[in-house]
């Protein structure tokens, strides 16, 4: 059996980034633009509703970004079977 030796990734920020990962970044920031650029502009007649929804959505986006960062920076290898470096 021929085993290919290559460097093992220790987190999701190491290059090259996966295409699905890049697509997710574009979709996330596109969703932010869509919400604030289109939805909030169309609700501008009601100031309090716009402020409330913008604040709630902003907090949720910050939480999603933070937890996505934590998930990406985490080492995915199983420590019980991790090989020596």
Textual characterization of the structure:
With 85 residues, the chain is mainly alpha-helical. It has a domain at 19-73. Helices cover 60% and strands 0% of the residues. The chain contains two helices and no strands.
Quick summary:
The protein has 85 residues and is mainly alpha-helical. It has helices at residues 19-42, 47-73.
Could you spell the SSE succession in H and E letters?
A: HH
**How many DSSP helices?**
2
Question: For the residues shown, what is the average pLDDT?
Answer: 82
Sheet/helix structural class: mainly alpha
**Cα distance, first to last residue?**
22 Å
User: What ranges have pLDDT less than 50 throughout 5 or more consecutive residues?
Assistant: none
- Gyration radius (Cα, Å) is 20 Å
The total strand number stands at: 0
Largest sheet: none
Beta fraction: under 5%
- Which oligomeric state applies? single chain
- Shape summary: elongated
Helical residues, percent: 55-70%
């Amino acid at each position: 059996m021929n085993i290919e030796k290559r460097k093992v990734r220790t987190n999701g920020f190491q290059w090259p980034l996966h295409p699905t990962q890049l697509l997710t970044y574009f979709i996330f920031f596109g969703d932010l633009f869509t919400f604030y650029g289109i939805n909030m502009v169309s609700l501008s007649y009601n100031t309090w509703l716009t402020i409330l929804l913008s604040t709630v959505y902003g907090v949720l986006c910050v939480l999603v970004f933070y937890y996505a960062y934590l998930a990406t920076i985490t080492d995915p290898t199983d420590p019980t079977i991790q090989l020596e470096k």
